[in-house]
Design brief:
about 220 residues; mainly alpha; about 80% helix; about 0% strand
């Protein structure tokens, strides 16, 4: 038995590394997409606003945190805690990597100061949204648990009523939960306009729960 467990651990380790390896490129791609979309908007969609557009988005979404996140079950002061987490994300992603200094240097020497300021503000907004997603993980967890409970109940009802089972459906949808979560996070992190976190988190969590319910409801093997 210990040998079998060791084999399982060794087999699961590449999967864990692969998941971690997919997370960082997704976050980096979201940050790059947010900056590129903001730059394209400065050229075509809001040329009169310039870098003020990203500054306005940052002010609006920071206001959402200070106004609406006033209490939570797992932290005493969520707005203050989110502010510290946002600063930590900013230091890790921009200051310690030198990206903020590089953008400032590029703006001073290339005449693209407006674009550099917009990029810095957009990346700060990215840090705010990433912090919101981190604090929203319990919401996704609740919807996943509800979806699994609903799906397993549907599965038991189908099995006891001699309903038909199609393994192909389960194999088709079992990979969707991770993709739904990644797509929702990517879209929220790169949106070029201010939006309340609830308008993104709740629909994404509900869709994730529905997919989990479908995956659990079409599971064919016996649970022992």
């Amino acid at each position: 038995m210990p040998a079998r467990e060791a084999v399982r651990e060794r087999a699961a380790e590449p999967t864990r590394r692969a998941r971690r390896g997919r997370l960082l490129p997704m976050l980096a791609g979201s940050a790059v997409a947010a900056v590129v979309i903001e730059w394209i908007g400065m050229v075509f969609w809001w040329p009169d606003e310039g870098a003020a557009h990203s500054a306005r988005m940052l002010a609006i979404e920071t206001g959402y945190l200070n106004r609406d996140f006033v209490e939570a079950a797992f932290v005493a002061r969520p707005a203050e805690t989110m502010g510290r987490a946002r600063d930590w994300v900013w230091r890790w992603t921009m200051e310690w990597t030198g990206a903020a200094a590089a953008l400032g240097w590029l703006g001073e020497r290339s005449g693209l100061g407006e674009f550099a300021r917009a990029a810095l503000t957009t990346l700060e907004l990215f840090a705010v949204r990433l912090t919101v997603l981190a604090f929203s993980l319990p919401v996704f967890g609740v919807f996943v648990l509800c979806g699994l409970a609903t799906g397993l109940s549907m599965r038991d009802i189908r099995r006891w009523s001699a309903g038909r089972e199609f393994g192909g459906v389960h194999h088709a949808v079992r990979r969707l939960p991770g993709r739904v979560l990644a797509l929702g996070c990517f879209a929220y992190l790169s949106l070029p306009f201010a939006i309340h976190p609830t308008a993104v988190v709740l629909p994404s969590a509900a869709l994730l729960g529905a997919v989990c319910a479908l995956a659990a409801g079409t599971f064919k093997k016996y649970l022992t």
